[in-house]
């Protein structure tokens, strides 16, 4: 359950990893590198696909989602909330200095969540690969 008062961390490796639409490699859980939290991170294995978090909001309203990721080139990702494209989609994930050890948390987006269960999905949107995701931080505005 998300907190209405504080930021809640949701690990990517505990989310649903979505199969690619082009028959490429399915994202999986990896544990190489350093600095990630939890039991690992979602690795796109140079293929497309996505990550789907189920977020249980205590009340309807606007929440800020901040993505923790590792990347060595700019990658665009499509963001949907409960099956609808988010207003700020696609999101651009910036260049970091190293895969799996320099985790950035500089991409945030405000989304409207319903009270109760919500699905937040981030999908590769350009046919390339996605960044590796460690977690999202979700905070009620």
Low-confidence stretches: none
What do we call the CATH homologous superfamily?
Galactose-binding domain-like
Number of helices: 0
Number of domains: 1
Overall geometry comes to: globular
Mean pLDDT, to the nearest integer, reads 86
- The CATH topology name reads Jelly Rolls
- String of helices and strands: EEEEEEEEEEEE
Topology:
Elements: E1 8-11, E2 16-18, E3 28-30, E4 41-43, E5 50-57, E6 61-70, E7 75-81, E8 84-85, E9 91-93, E10 104-113, E11 116-124, E12 132-140
Antiparallel strand pairs: 1-12, 2-5, 3-4, 5-11, 6-10, 6-12, 7-8, 7-9, 7-11
Condensed summary:
By secondary structure, this protein is mostly beta strands.
Structural description of this entry:
The chain has one domain (8-140): Jelly Rolls. It is 0% helix and 50% strand. It contains no helices and 12 strands. It has strands spanning 8-11, 16-18, 28-30, 41-43, 50-57, 61-70, 75-81, 84-85, 91-93, 104-113, 116-124, 132-140. Strands 2, 5, 7, 8, 9 and 11 form a 6-stranded antiparallel beta sheet that branches. Strands 1-12-6-10 form a 4-stranded antiparallel beta sheet, with no helix packed on it. The model has no long low-confidence stretch (mean pLDDT 86).
């Amino acid at each position: 359950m998300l907190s209405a008062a504080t930021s809640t961390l949701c690990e990517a490796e505990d989310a649903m990893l979505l199969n690619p639409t082009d028959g490429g490699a399915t994202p999986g859980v990896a544990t190489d590198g350093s600095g990630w939290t939890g039991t690992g991170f979602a690795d796109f294995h140079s293929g497309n696909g996505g990550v789907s978090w189920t977020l249980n909001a205590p009340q309807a309203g606007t929440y800020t989602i901040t993505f923790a990721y590792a990347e060595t080139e700019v990658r665009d990702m499509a963001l949907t909330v409960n099956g609808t494209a988010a207003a700020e989609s696609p999101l651009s994930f910036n260049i970091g200095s190293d895969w799996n050890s320099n985790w950035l948390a500089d991409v945030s987006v405000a989304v409207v969540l319903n009270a109760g269960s919500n699905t937040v999905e981030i999908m590769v949107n350009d046919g390339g690969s996605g960044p590796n995701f460690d977690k999202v931080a979700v905070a009620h505005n």
